[in-house]
């Protein structure tokens, strides 16, 4: 991984975390659930809802907007509350980039990337086993970020990181159950076991399964990471 790609990867990974400010974290979850938020996003509305001053409202507004929780729709600002179709389309786009990365890796020497990939897969499996969807999806996104970064193409990673907003992770987390997380963990094992092989269909299919049909895992061969 080149220095530029590695730096971009590290920055992207750092962003895949819960908010440091507890009030902003509360707003993140409320926006994802569509409950208990002002009708229209604005610094003043956020400050009033949190019983804070306007300076905090400006800060919170900037944070929520930069992480995708507030978006521009034509001429107005609105909360990010995707429909099932919109979320499906976003997940499909991410799955497409991931599958492309897996194909690229099949013709590369993946040895240098294996330790980081193994670490991310293990972390995802551990968190998925806890039954906490949000924590599991954050770990899943870090794992897949490592897969895309392993290709070493900055433009691909930039496009992927832009699409992999933390807001869609929060939105998706309220749609998943422990059954989905268990299926994703099984698919993750299959993906890692077949990563960097010339026959890429199984590996790519496992990655897609985690995005688009998590409760129906792809299990080809049991493997321990």
Overall description:
The chain has 225 residues and is mainly alpha-helical. The chain contains eleven helices and two strands; from the N terminus they run H-H-H-H-E-E-H-H-H-H-H-H-H. It has helices at 3-15, 22-33, 43-50, 54-66, 84-105, 114-128, 133-150, 154-163, 166-173, 178-194, 201-212; strands at 70-73, 76-79. It has a two-stranded antiparallel sheet with strand order 1-2. A hairpin with a 2-residue loop joins strand 1 (70-73) and strand 2. Helix 7 (133-150) packs across helix 9 (166-173). It starts with a helix and ends in a 13-residue tail after the last helix.
Which bin fits the share of residues in helices?
Answer: 55-70%
Instruction: Kindly report how far apart the N and C termini lie.
Output: 22 Å
- What radius of gyration results from the CA coordinates? 18 Å
Which band does the percent of strand residues land in? under 5%
Adjacency order of strands in the biggest sheet: 1-2
Mean pLDDT across all amino acids: 93
Residue runs with pLDDT of under 50 for 5 or more positions: none
Major beta-sheet overview: 2 strands, antiparallel
Strand tally is 2
Form type: globular
> H/E element string?
HHHHEEHHHHHHH
Number of helices: 11
Which class best fits the helix and strand makeup? Answer: mainly alpha
What are the defining features of this structure?
two-stranded antiparallel sheet, single chain, 225 residues, 11 helices, 66% helix, mainly alpha, 2 strands, 4% strand, globular
């Amino acid at each position: 991984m080149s220095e530029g790609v590695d730096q971009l990867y590290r920055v992207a990974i750092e962003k895949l975390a819960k908010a440091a400010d507890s009030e902003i974290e509360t707003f993140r979850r409320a926006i994802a659930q569509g409950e208990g938020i002002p009708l229209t996003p604005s610094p003043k509305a956020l400050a009033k809802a949190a019983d804070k001053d306007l300076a905090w409202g400006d800060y919170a507004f900037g944070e929520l907007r930069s992480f995708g929780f507030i978006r521009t729709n034509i001429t107005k600002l609105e909360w990010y509350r995707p429909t099932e179709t919109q979320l499906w389309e976003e997940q499909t786009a991410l799955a497409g980039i991931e599958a492309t990365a897996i194909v690229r890796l099949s013709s590369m020497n993946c040895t240098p990337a294996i330790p980081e990939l193994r670490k991310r897969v293990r972390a995802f499996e551990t968190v998925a086993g806890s039954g906490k969807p949000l924590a599991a999806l954050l770990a899943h996104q870090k794992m897949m970020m490592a897969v895309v970064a392993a290709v070493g193409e900055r433009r691909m990673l930039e496009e992927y990181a832009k699409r992999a907003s933390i807001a869609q992770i929060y939105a998706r987390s309220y749609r998943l159950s422990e059954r989905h997380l268990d299926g994703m963990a099984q698919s993750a094992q299959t993906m890692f076991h077949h990563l960097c092989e010339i026959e890429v269909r199984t590996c790519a299919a496992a990655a897609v399964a985690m995005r688009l049909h998590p409760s129906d895992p792809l299990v080809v061969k049991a493997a321990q990471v």
